[in-house]
Amino acid sequence: MKQAAKRRNAWVEGIAMLSGLVERLPLEFRVLYRQFLLRVVDLEALSVEADVLRLLGQFAGVLLLVSVLQSVALFFASESPALRHGGLLVLELRCVQGFLSGTMLVAGLFAVISWDNIFPDRRDVMVLGPLPVRPLTILLAKVVACGVVLAVGVVALNCAMGVALPLVAAGISGFPRMAAAYWTAAVGGAVFVYGAVLTVQGLLAWMLPRRWFLRVSSVLQMTAFAYFLANYFLEPTMWSPAWANAVTPEGQLRWWPSYWFLAVADQMGGLFRGPFVGMARWAWVGLSVAVSGAASALLLCYVRTMKKTVEEPDLVPGRRGWKGALRFGDALTTAIVSFSERSLARSKQHRVVYAFFLSVAFAIAVSTVKGIVESGARRPLTLGFLVATFVMICVAVVGLRSIFSLPVSLKANWVLQVTQLRPSVAYIAATRRSLLLLSALPVWLVAAGLGFGFRPWIQVAAHLVVLGLVGLILTDLSLIGVSKAPFACSYLPGKSNIQYMFWAFVVVFVPIAMEFAHYEQRVLGHVWRYALLVAVLGGVDWGLWAFNRRKAQTAVLYYEELEPVVIQTLGLAGARLSAPIEFEPRG
Predict the structure, then answer these.
(1) Number of domains, the chain
(2) Which of 49, 57, 189, 575 is the most exposed place for a label (fewest CB within 10 A)?
(3) What is the C-alpha separation between 397 and 434, in angstroms, rounded?
(4) 357 and 297 in a common domain
(5) Contacts of 268 (CB under 8 A, 6+ apart)
């Protein structure tokens, strides 16, 4: 009891000391840090009741569960007699490399989601500019806020594996050294990725005019998304130390940064007995360049280019030149589709959220391409390809539908309100076409391109027909009850829960997609069964389309999303009083 009391008192004293150190920081820094922490991720895009702690908790919960499950699997595998010799070392190598690669992916995705939030924006210049706050204080507050969020992701993903793997690999005696090596490599990999992104952004913001930077920034953001995912899914898998010696350092591994930091873990921990030590210098050089480049770029932006942010709007003006536009139907349909396409292309808020959904579809496509390339020959239509295409089209449709409710600019909603000269059914039909053209059709075309790696082509064509019908069904399902134009309605926060969405997708939709893919694979070789499947899917889609159209004929478009009116009562209706109430006269 006395020892427990002493430990508790030590914890209390440590927390009190830390609180005292925080209170000694300048007041301006503490206030700005709290405000910037709320703006690291756009809460209007990923709204969870405007609570950044809840948002971080949801992300951390998903990453923590992944880490715990992998750690438990490692403990059970380490007890297997079949892995007592070389097999256990291979498993440890793959665990370290896999988690380092995942940590760098998390850092890269965070850098893309919080794109240029660490740099001064219009609000910073106009609100903080007239105040007696030094630019260096603003910079440090933003750096610390972004660092806290990045640290939450890194710690959540590695907290369990960062303890389990050193215990399994080095035992109790070697745990401190191996744990220090593992966490140094994990933190170094995350800082390297985030610093490299900041370096590129800062140098472009310093060298280019603001208008050009806004144009290049959107392209660079999507390119970074694609690069991080492709790097994660295409990097070679660890097979054995001998394999690593055969390809390191002059071979292919030197092009993959996750193996650089695996070499750092090897250099500091000495677990793998030298196969990666020669590549550690790449990690240290890259980390030094990324940190120094990010620091220089941030200082240049805050000292020299901070005032340029008020010269251009956040939405980039259109280029001069050819004013023609593609036709997607009548004038109203063309206007709605073009408005949706340009909102995605020019608004950072919508682009980031939709790219987050598309990243899942892109990752699945990259994995499929990797399997086709490694096989070296055209294969029969596999179950994995069927499931992958179903998941891709579901993610694309649901992702785009989820951001249709996010307005581009609330001040511009009145333009669509005063120009509503046609019935609501025409607007809802144009919304449906926008969803099909911007989500289902691109994924369908990607699936058709991936289908060239499979045989026979007649079955691939048959699957594409089924995939198209599934896309139509998902589109019509997502539009049930929708009576608004895309990107033109105010948005109430507090509707999304990342954990629920993630686990609902994994637990509910993925098993359904696998069962449906099993059934489709069985009927592809039978003409009549396949025809029945197509007829059923077509009938379901026609029923959903007819239902939505009937509702749309009496619908009224709305542009302001209001909170539901909740009337609270005292519950006294019909209640019996046990005794009469007597009132005493005053005075």
Answers:
(1) 2
(2) 575
(3) 11
(4) no
(5) 177, 180, 181, 184, 185
Q: How far apart are CA 229 and CA 106, in angstroms?
A: 10
By residue range, what is the domain housing residue 166?
Answer: 29-309
Instruction: Give SS3 for 475.
Output: helix
Cβ proximity of 83 and 91 under 8 Å: yes
- When pLDDT is cut at 50, 70 and 90, the band that residue 240 belongs to is low
pLDDT in tens, 242-290: 555 555 544 567 778 888 888 888 888 776 555 566 678 888 899 999 9
Q: Which of 309, 341, 364 is the last residue of a domain?
A: 309
**pLDDT, tens digit (0-9, with 9 covering 90-100), for 210-221:** 777 777 777 787
Positive/negative CA dihedral, 271, 275, 278, 282: negative
Task: Check whether residue 284 and residue 357 sit in a common domain.
Answer: no
* Residue 268 structure tokens: 């500091």
Give me the percent of the chain exceeding a pLDDT of 90: 11
Same domain membership, residue 543 and residue 430:
yes
Question: Could you tell me if residue 327 is inside a domain?
Answer: no
Q: Which of 39, 55, 46, 52 is nearest to 116 (CA)?
A: 39
- Domain membership flag for residue 529: yes
Q: b or e along 268-293 (b: 16 or more beta carbons within 10 Å of the residue's beta carbon)?
A: bbebbeebbbbbbebbbebbeebbeb
